[in-house]
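$ fold --in a.seq
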Amino acid sequence: MTGWRDRLRGIAGRFRRGGDTVPAAADERGGAVAESLRGLLDDPSIPGSVREAMASDFQRIERMLDRLENEELHVAVFGRVSAGKSALGNALLGREAFEVGVLHGTTTEADAARLDEAASAGLVLIDTPGINELGGEAREKLAFEVAEVSDLIVFVADGDLTREERDALRTLASTRRPLLVALNKADRYSDDEREGLLDRLREHATGLVRREDVIAVTARPAPRDVVEVDATGKESRSSEPRAADVAALKARLLAIAEREGKTLSAINAGLFAGRLTDQVSERIAATRRDVASGVIRQYCIAKAVAVALNPVPVADLLLAGGLDAAMVVQLGRVYGLPLTRSESGRLVAVITTQLAALMGAVWGAQLVSSALKGLSGGLSVVVTAAAQGALGWYATVLIGRAAEHYLITGKSWGEHGAKRAVADIVASLDRDSILREAREEILRRLRK
């Protein structure tokens, strides 16, 4: 991998290790990530089948690129339904963007396209399913999905945390997204009770959330009772709505957005795109491996049949070597690392050398079979065909797999060298199974 893919992995690596969050660094990182995202979206080397299979992931990359360009900070509001997370979202936005009191129990996947979301002042709020509607495993899955579509998480509670809330808070913290904790419905408590609850929440969040990021809010305060007395002394009662009190939380979010918004968005986009790049590479490699396996099998059959049925001694061995070299040339084309005929011949020689003991036995049997053909005027082919063809098949599988490994690693055997690579391949093969398959195929063709 070269170019934008390497840059993207390098950026993701720096984000994983942490670093400064000053505006200059944010601009530099955001621009580098955006450039790499465009490279990923426009890469002509990604097959259409891979793009189709990963369409939703590529759409998310497009949304992330839009976020970076529009300087948006995506904030997920997470918590129990009854804690008032939708009401808090509305209060922060200053409008009724999210339905209050409606259960989102059927929404268990936190994909950005399926969650309620709304924007204000560069902040995009995402209203998530209530954690009390989900089991533990589903809750953990949701937490990580929420983290993937958000840059910052506000965890909403309306009192001391339950065990499931504490578990959810720890799970969210493990996603390495910045966390704020909002104590909602603070108007229900006296000053002392409110301070006591904030202290309890800070204890639960020790090591997960900064103390100053545990904030009391009132998203939907209870109406104030108003008693009026007319001139005759008659009393009348009415209720008067009160304004939400979310100023401290909103100020904190805006401050984070101003100072660290670009960095947080770039971190999220960079890490997600880095994972996607690895997945794309693996899918492309898997597609190539499937094609390569087909190429190896075709040459196994061609070589086995040619060696088995060729009645001319020595000519069958020369034919086998030529087919091995031709196969390696084809594999080079499959993996986009073309080899010349002479390069493929040298690679076959290296592999055969590393398989000296095993290939010695194979070629020993081949020489005996070839000699019998000479002594019998070619008539022994009836006896030697299946065995010789099966051994030729096995040798081709070994050479093909070793050559494939060489190409996958970029024409390099890696730190352990050719000997280790070939040894691993030999150990992974079921020799009896391969030889049995080869013999059956040869005999089937002989019967024809």
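$ fold --in b.seq
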Amino acid sequence: MSEGPEERVDPRRLEGGLRRVVGRRTLLLFVIGDILGAGIYALVGKVSGEVGGAVWLPFLVAFVLAALTATAYAELVGKYPQAAGAALYVNRAFGVPFVTFVVAFAVMMSGVTSASAAARAFGGDYLAEFVSLPTLVGALAFLAVVTLVNLVGISESVKVNVALTLVEASGLLVIIVIGVFALVGGDGEPSRALEFHPGGGAFLGVLGGTALAFYALLGFEDSVNLAEEARDPERDFPVALFGGLAVAVVIYGAVAFTATMLVDARTLRSSTGPLLEVVKVAGLDFPPKLFALIALLAVGNTALINMIMASRLVYGMARERIVPPPLGAVHPTRRTPWVAIAFTVALAVALVATGDVGGLADTTVLLLLCVFALVNVCVLVLRRERVEHRHFRAPTWMPVLGAASCLFLTLPITGRDGEVYLRALVLLAIGLVLWLVNRVVLRRTARSGATRPGPG
């Protein structure tokens, strides 16, 4: 669990860092809140389409695979308790600026694709409880609202995020209570939750379902950015990370079991608001419109978190002159990165117009699986670096298996459509263009500075 001392600077003693004010309980709640979100509200039906009634199984497998990668994050956060996450670890392990940029840009793009999936989910059956609009129109209107909140300011955005986290958790609690009442009252068909009807065979069915279910557990990656503000990240982060994943998978398992117990797989598969179908057939009299509102707010929270993260990453890269500096422009009165926000929103609009919930969620998973594979490799490479303080050390086989499983889940064998790979490549190509443009601009600036006559 510890590393021996060597002549290296303790990252916890760096001057000018962020205030360490986040305790273990707050960190645990943040991890749970970061994981819970649009994934479970939107994708239960899609996962059911892969495996039939046993929806809980892909969620369980996804949890096991996510936990393997979580051990790598737990070791690296304890070793380097600073903000920046995967980009920091890749930079320390390989020291290649372009690779670091690609990782940071992939994380940023995963936020945009995740928000786009949430927008498509928002414009579906949940919104239809209140107003009849084409899915695309509802999704674009939703993006406009999220953008407005993002532009208003980070303080206001964080307050909205905290409130929405409580709302989305309450919605999942409603589904679990419905399940308990159904079991006690003898309603539903619990045996249906054990039915297994994969379309392309058991292995491929679970694999495809797991690749989708992984989307619902990806939020833990964002929590590493609190490392620099945690009071005792070496001790608290592993507890919060593994505890948050465990709580989330229990909640997801209970929700998935309830959904398939009360609603047949065909209905779940065809619905863009699968949990709303559960509320409508429940013996417990809970207003469907109220639950639809809760679901819409939960989906909104996921999009808001991801769009804030994406725009701030673009802003940070622009300020560091990694991408063109104009992307780092700040609004004169609101002090928000309005150009970065406009850039990420433009990407989201294009994605919403060309993809569906499943495809956009799958693109998010594909991008982050590549990042996770690198993080698992980083933890092994960085074993050569030793620090003075004690920290969590993952058993070597776990990051090895984590890297292998992440790479395996990126393969077409999962049933992932070709357009998902194409979409991911196009998004990364945008990053490559920005990188090249910035390099040309910097080179010209340096050249003009060198040839400009000095004072005299």
